[in-house]
Amino acid sequence: MPLRAGATVPRRLKYQGILLQAENYWRQLDDFAADGLLPVKDIEDNGFYVQAVFFPIREKLELYGIASQIYGDEDAGYSDSSEYGVGMNWYPYPTRNHRLNVQLLDVNKSPVSSTFGYYTGGQDGWTLASSFSVFF
């Protein structure tokens, strides 16, 4: 199954403790190998991701906002999905090895599960999560 995709390289802008990161993608899947008939000939979708971050208290408190959107191929049976959220990281010590994270996410028809377990594939709704991380 060949994958043809044209994606932009993630773009980052940093200025005095403020970060803006964005990326977008386009994907086309076709020429499927199968034992029987398939309901679609190809799948094409696209989407984007944006994150804004800043430190109102230098090296102590980091605030961020995120947004992502996937425009699914409705002809192939895939609907649109999105994720919007705000969060914060608080660093209690003068190191990035200890962190308290709190975030609020609005997940709409997630096509996948999150890496850290904050939401599952197909979820449609709000998630409030917090964690304390210690890195060695």
In a few lines, what is going on in this structure?
The chain is mainly β and 136 residues long.
Describe the structure.
With 136 residues, the chain is mainly beta. The protein has no helices and 8 strands. The mean pLDDT is 87.
Question: Features of this protein?
Answer:
136 residues; 60% strand; single chain; elongated; mainly beta; eight-stranded antiparallel beta sheet
Got a strand count? 8
The biggest sheet, with number of strands, parallel, antiparallel or mixed sense and barrel status, is:
8 strands, antiparallel
Query: In the residues, how many domains can be counted?
Result: 1
What class, by secondary structure content? mainly beta
What is the helix tally?
0
Give the overall silhouette: elongated
Relative strand content: over 45%
Mean pLDDT across the residues is 87
Helix content: under 10%
The Rg value, from CA coordinates, equals: 19 Å
Residue windows where pLDDT falls under 50 for at least 5 positions:
none
Alpha carbon gap, first and last residue = 41 Å
Topology order in helix (H) and strand (E) letters: EEEEEEEE
